[in-house]
Write a structure and sequence with these properties.
With 229 residues, the protein is mostly helical. It has eight helices and two strands, in the order H-H-H-E-E-H-H-H-H-H. The chain is extended.
Length: 229
């Protein structure tokens, strides 16, 4: 009995070792492919920060992040890299695998518009649908493509017309004024507060007023707490 148990354990450990070895080989192979691809891009003269054959741009991004607060948004990273490597233009490549897929970073509004305008016919990144699916089930303009997107965008067009937006300006200005009052109150008290939470609440208040015709504030109360939507 003990010999059978020892045999089973031996087979189990061998199986686990083979699985682990397969994962390591797969990881190293993918690492080699991605690093080699970026090395080729660099040799072809395409813009990117200094690329390490093993670490890629992980060392570059780590240095850039060290200059930012620990809770800073990741969107600050591209501009920090451009500040350090000023020869980079508004578009450059970034290799942060395995922590992120390979990036083509665009920091220019002109270039970004070429990616995002419908005339570009570029497919949406799969991450958009994956992120929004639990919320929308895939039935949202950000995830739709092709004729489906055109049909639903045409339905929504009147809501985004310049004339309609103009009618919403007084409401938006009112909500922004309340947001400004809140910021002034925090400045007067000199306290530490979450600007992110306050900005999200202000955004939801604007959306609530212009899209749902509701307000979350109690009468006479210009301060809110929590996201009730």
């Amino acid at each position: 009995m003990s010999r059978l148990l020892a045999l089973d354990l031996s087979l189990s450990f061998r199986f686990l070792f083979l699985v682990l070895a397969a994962y390591i080989v797969r990881f190293l192979y993918k690492l080699y492919k991605i690093r080699s691809y970026f090395h080729k891009l660099q040799c072809d003269g395409l813009p990117m920060p200094p690329h390490h054959p093993i670490f890629g741009h992980l060392l570059v991004t780590n240095t850039a992040l060290s200059n930012l607060p620990r809770d800073a948004h990741a969107h600050y990273l591209p501009s920090q890299i451009r500040l350090k490597y000023q020869y980079l233009g508004p578009v450059y490549y970034l290799d942060m695998w395995p922590f992120a897929p390979p990036f083509l970073v665009a920091t220019s509004p002109t270039v970004i518009s070429q990616f995002t305008q419908s005339e570009s016919h570029l497919p949406n990144h799969p991450g958009i649908r994956k992120y929004l699916y639990p919320i929308t089930g895939g039935g949202d303009l950000a995830s739709m493509e092709g004729e489906e997107w055109k049909r639903w965008r045409k339905i929504y067009n009147p809501g985004f017309s310049a004339g309609h937006i103009q009618t919403l300006v007084p409401t938006i200005v009112e909500e922004v004024g309340i947001f400004v009052d809140i910021l002034k109150e925090h400045a007067r008290k000199g306290d530490m507060f979450s600007l992110d939470e306050a900005a999200i609440n202000a955004t939801m208040d604007v959306i609530g007023r212009v899209a749902l015709y509701v307000t979350r504030r109690l009468p006479g109360n210009c301060l809110w707490s929590g996201n009730q939507f």
